[in-house]
Amino acid sequence: MADNNDRESSTLGRVSWALYDWANSPFTTLIITFVFATYFAQGIVGDKVQGQALWGYTAAISGAVIAIFSPIFGSIADAGGPRKPWLAVFTLVCVVGSFMLWYAKPDPEFIVWAMVFVIIANIAFEFGIVFNNAMLPDIVAEERVGRWSGWAWGIGYFGGLLALVLALVGFVQTDTPLLGLGKEEAANIRVVGPIVAIWFVLFVWPMFAFTPDRRRNRLSTGEKLRNGLAALADTLRKVGHYRNIALFLVARMLYADGLATVFAMGGVYAAGAFNMEFADVIKFGILLNVTAGLGAVCFAWIDDWIGSKPTIIISLIGLMGTALVAILTHDVFWFWIAGAALGIFVGPAQAASRTMLARMAPTELSTEFFGLFALTGKATAFLGPLLVAYFTSAYDSQRVGLSVILVFFGIGLLLLLPVKEQKSSAVD
How many Å apart are CA 220 and CA 283, to the nearest integer? Predict the structure, then answer.
């Protein structure tokens, strides 16, 4: 285990760490959930049902790779010391993958191109989050991790919000898109790829410049790899002794799959079920990011006040209720209302989960457990999109397809109830 950096993290260091969420959030909002996802289904594929199915396969493939390798990378980073070099590599890959989506023109011959680079970028995006999450216990005191985790999520949602506004006003809902772009071959839509890439580069640098990292050690790459894999194997062998954490990770695996499915399919569902235009989908995304950001920031204090577990329970109940309304209604007005309300609970469910693990995980195993955290967040991530695609095709109904998220939220909630929110030991 590498020693922690002996420099106490300043406010600047913590804010810079939180800005990572601001830097990477447009990838989720512009590419995965709203703009490019809708463009892929309607512009490239040209069929709502087939487009939703192919987008589901894209999410499933990237989710499988992430599930396999996230805990390995987390363990290797923990054995090797600093997290920033890994963050730099995965940030660069995500940036390049996002930029390459500019070349995905509105023609079925670009289906494979789009899927490949979305998969590459999404894998790198999620691997980067593993290392960013693992930095939190090193830079924030335990009694304040809830608010900093929540604030970071809130900052991220507002970053995604600003990116959506930029896409709407500057490129989609205008007769003269910025940068001299026209609307031929959907250039004003495809530009979201380069926007995400440039945004990431512009706003990620403070984290690299000002947030403290663990000290380097003198291990060779081979030694780091062997030590990391050995540590991972040891963690997996011992995880049965950390029954409290194991139960939490399984519960989180299921409700995170529901959230991942919402993110992967939300924009495609809104556009298809309610015949929304690109501009309307972006406006819907803006609304969700406003409410999600407010929810993450406000619940940050609630997390520190009542604890992470009650915060997650409240969020899951809220997600189930609002999602049910969004699926059942045929009135676009009530869909907007339900979507806005759902957004309030998305941020707290994510941020409080990160906080809960930071509070529960043994300090010496924090990075490894955050690798397992990423694993459980993605281990079944392929299942939700695949089930949505299957039921959408089987019943020729996007509503029936999306209803599977209620099952993931419900089972995750039931498994969470007996979990104890406390620092875990090998005898819990």
Answer: 50
